[in-house]
Amino acid sequence: MSSFPIRRASSSEGDSQPAIDERKRKRMLSNRESARRSRMKKQQHLNDLMNQMAHIKIQNSRIAEQTHLVTQQYIKVESDNAVLRAQLSELAERLQSVNSVLRSLEEVSGIAMDIPSIPSSLLKPFKPPTMATAD
């Protein structure tokens, strides 16, 4: 048995039944329209996210390509630097050898010679500058 009393339609309630049906119909249409708008909004949001994802994928691809190019350039610069360091070492050794010969010649001949010294900055490995931090 229901806890709600059963109401019998009286003549005055019978007249209001079409008004109630009309309100139900309007509410139903309103709910349908609201659901349709909600679905459209959801679909538009999904489309926006898909477009954003495509744009981000393109950006990621460009960044990956740029990173690859910079890495290749870095490898080339490192290779060039290794060659230059080897040449520097070889030239420094040759200069020391020439200076040694000049010193020996200076001692034997007794004539004073201007023997260049190797700058210490050339003998030390190159240290790249450090980035200053912004505090």
TrEMBL record:
Composition skew (Polar residues), residue ranges: 1-15
GO cellular component: a single term: nucleus
Pfam families xrefs: bZIP_1
Gene Ontology MF annotations: DNA-binding transcription factor activity; protein heterodimerization activity; transcription cis-regulatory region binding
Domain BZIP: 21-84
Disordered: annotated segments: 1-43
Top-rank taxon, per record: Eukaryota
Annotated CDD domains: bZIP_plant_GBF1
Residues that span the membrane, as ranges: none
Protein location: Nucleus
Keywords for this protein: DNA-binding, Nucleus, Transcription, Transcription regulation
UniProt-listed Gene3D superfamilies: 1.20.5.170
GO biological process, one term: positive regulation of DNA-templated transcription
Database matches in PANTHER family: BZIP TRANSCRIPTION FACTOR 44 (PTHR45764:SF38)
Name this polypeptide is given: BZIP domain-containing protein
Source species: Ensete ventricosum
